[in-house]
Write a structure and sequence with these properties.
Blueprint (H helix, E strand, L loop, with lengths): L5 E6 L5 E5 L2 H10 L7 H27 L5 E7 L2 E6 L5 H25 L6 H21 L7 H13 L2 H30 L9 H8 L5
Parallel strand pairs: 2-3
Antiparallel strand pairs: 1-2, 3-4
Helix pairs in contact: 1-2, 2-3, 2-4, 3-4, 3-5, 5-6, 6-7
Length: about 220
Amino acid sequence: MYSDGAIFEFRGPWNVPIQLNQSLILLVLIIVGFSFDPGTLPYALGFVGILLGSILLHELGHAWGCLIQGVPVNRVVLYCGGGFCEHRRSTSSYEDELIVAMGPIVNLTLWAVCSLVEPFVSSPALGWVLVVTAQLNLWLAIFNMLPLMPLDGGRLFHAMLNRMVKPVTATRIAGFVGLIGVAMWLPMMVFAYVNFGFVFLFFPPLLRHWHMLRYAQY
């Protein structure tokens, strides 16, 4: 058993340690649990594989953004709510912009490549994989760009504000926008579940945005 609830670890690109958290078991159970028909079970398991692969590539994008700027990476962790890339030292706002942006860029690249290739594929199974990969990565890119902490969009929004106003003002604006997002999140969760059957496993942190608005420690 590895630290922080990791049940498996392996070395990824650039020799970066990649850990799978035990909470991924819950994610698999939730997704497979929606597959009541045994005939759809392979598709549910395939979706799990595509989702985890997409999140892993997203986090490796962050790792690449670190390493190309000389920021050592401790590990990449995948867990039920997504993943994170942990680096060994603090980064400047300029370094952080590239690190953060690389995650959504990877997702958009996967979406574009799979969308372009899929029309030329004759295999129904491979076509399904490409369509799901494209749609899922487009959704991941859009979701991650919401201006909420700790999502990539929230971090980029904060960094962008830091370029235009004083740090205290930037933090308070980002906190205020985040609180609006928190207030809208529950209705969004209900709407997504009722209309699309989608369950959000993420809820934006209320206290973090509140502390940012007050310019407290966050």
